[in-house]
Specification:
By secondary structure, this protein is an alpha/beta fold. The protein has a single domain, classed as UDP-N-acetylmuramoyl-L-alanine:D-glutamate ligase (3-Layer(aba) Sandwich), CATH 3.40.1190.20. 31% of the residues lie in helices and 26% in strands. It has nine helices and 13 strands. Strands 5-4-1-8-9-10-11-12-13 form a nine-stranded mixed beta sheet, with helices on both faces. Helix 3 packs parallel to helix 4.
Length: 297
């Protein structure tokens, strides 16, 4: 079984639930403030680790209390943090998250130390990377770093999963070849829609409560959703990507990995907050009767 290496963002999330999302200029009163670890990269690392993958996190936090808590939180979940750099010149990344009853949210990220993830992290990613490993990337760190990481991973013969979230800047650049690109429908449109199918090994378009579509080997496979009562969609995509990485590192075929991802994403939507919502094997068993021992090639 290969390892999972995640190079990406590490944030502290400040979360508040409101009756309805504010419109520009509105002030709304919400519930109690929840302060929980997040960041797309760190969430995906933890999601894979909770299911049983060997996971290494590569990234950067600030030299502040949030940074200390974020590294400790990753370790508690069994993620290796030797390649998380503490950067005293920056605050840790922070996300302001507003969730409405019903599960929709808005997320605003102050990247802080994530903005400085660069060559040093790519060199650390490359070190010790093997052919069986799976490299997981997202777009909350500088795009040039993501591109260099893809090249380094390919050079090592590792497989690459790119989660095109948030899509932002990459819309103006051609998507490099990756083994699996995961995007929600809006991100997929921004990245060039149908053209994408030809430029990557496989493409998954996630559709929230409608499941997902997998485009691979010239055909589309519809992956049906797991019905759940959604409380908060935050990190559902991260649970999805982490579970897919876990399954691929274990040797699963992509359609099976994507089915597991869908279940993990649905499970995450049933709880408030990013990190607290990422499922353990027992959650997948309780909610959907999924046994992880069945996940292999
Ligand atoms: O995908 C959810 C994550 O996006 C949150 O944890 C937040 O930190 C932002 O990075």
């Amino acid at each position: 079984m290969g390892s999972v290496a995640v190079l990406g963002s590490i944030n502290m999330d400040l979360v508040v639930r409101v009756p309805a999302l504010p419109l520009p200029g509105d002030t709304v009163l919400g519930d109690r403030l929840l302060t929980v670890p997040g960041g797309k990269g760190a969430n995906q690392a933890v999601a894979a680790a909770r299911l049983g993958a060997r996971v290494r996190m590569i990234g950067r936090v600030g030299g502040d209390e949030f940074g200390r808590q974020l590294v400790a939180g990753l370790r508690e979940d069994g993620v290796r943090t030797a390649d998380v750099i503490v950067d005293a010149s920056e605050p840790s990344g922070t996300a302001l998250i507003v969730v409405e009853h019903g599960g929709q949210n808005t997320v605003t990220v102050a990247p802080g130390a994530n903005r400085r993830v660069g060559e040093e992290e790519v060199a650390r990613l490359r070190r010790g990377l093997g052919r069986d490993d799976v490299v997981v990337l997202q777009l909350e760190i500088p795009l040039d770093t993501v591109m260099a990481a893809i090249a380094a991973a390919k050079d090592a013969g590792a497989r690459v999963i790119l989660n095109a979230a948030p899509s932002g800047g990459i819309a103006r650049r051609p998507v490099p070849f990756v083994d699996l690109l995961v995007a929600n429908w809006r991100e997929a449109e921004e990245l060039g829609g149908k053209e994408l199918e030809r430029s990557v090994g496989a493409l998954v378009v996630t559709l929230g409560a409608d499941g997902s579509k997998l485009y691979a080997d010239g055909r589309m496979t519809r992956i049906e959703p797991q019905p759940v009562e959604a409380i908060d969609a935050t990190a559902a995509g991260d649970a999805f990507v982490g579970a897919v990485a876990f399954a691929i590192a274990r040797g699963a075929h992509i359609p099976d990995a994507v089915r597991l991802g869908g279940a993990a994403g649905a499970a995450a939507a049933t709880k408030l907050g990013a990190r607290p919502s990422l499922p353990f094997p027992e959650d997948l068993k309780r909610l959907f009767g999924i046994e992880l021992d069945d996940v292999h090639d």
